[in-house]
Design a protein that fits this description.
Blueprint: E1 3-5, H1 6-13, H2 17-25, E2 33-34, E3 40-43, H3 44-58, E4 60-65, H4 71-85, E5 90-93, H5 103-112, E6 116-121, H6 132-141, E7 145-148
Parallel strand pairs: 4-5, 4-6, 6-7
Antiparallel strand pairs: 1-3, 2-3
Length: about 150
């Protein structure tokens, strides 16, 4: 098992060593080991646990709209749904006609990175047909809920 010095661990999780010292004092994140000289050490298990906690805390809920002619209708349906469910969402409005140049490609990247928790769409056919099966597979394997509101 890998052991991290405080500066290495701080780099891995994107904070400063000083932040880790403060978290230690506040019992937010204690080091696995602390030497008599005050040096703090963290483990690989702590890194994984931290990343899992952060990932669950910061995963997004998004609304995806793809229909240039009626996107305002889709948007209002998704906005109403989100308001009724009392959830805040980020919108991706598709303007591209091909996957390679699409907003959906950005969404898929975020899905693969584990950044998305829920995707709200009007109906499944707003997803490019050539990647729908793969899209649904990625969602399933990354524990992403797809909510079709129609």
């Amino acid at each position: 098992m890998k052991i991290y010095k405080i500066s290495e661990f701080a780099d891995e999780i994107g904070v400063t060593a000083q932040t880790l010292r403060i978290w230690d004092k506040k019992d937010k994140l204690k080091p696995a080991m602390k030497h008599d000289n005050g040096w703090r050490y963290y483990t690989e298990a702590q890194l994984e646990q931290y990343r899992d906690t952060v990932k669950d805390t910061y995963r997004k809920k998004i609304g995806y709209v793809n229909d240039v002619d009626s996107h305002s209708h889709q948007m209002s349906l998704i906005e109403s749904y989100a308001a009724n469910e009392d959830i805040e969402i980020e919108y991706f409005i598709e303007t591209g006609r091909h996957y390679e140049l699409s907003e959906l490609k950005k969404v898929v990247g975020q899905m693969l990175d584990g950044d998305i928790e829920v995707i709200i769409i009007e109906r499944k056919d707003v997803i490019f047909s050539e990647i729908l099966t793969v899209f649904l597979q990625i969602a399933e394997s990354n524990d992403i809920e797809i909510r079709c509101i129609k």
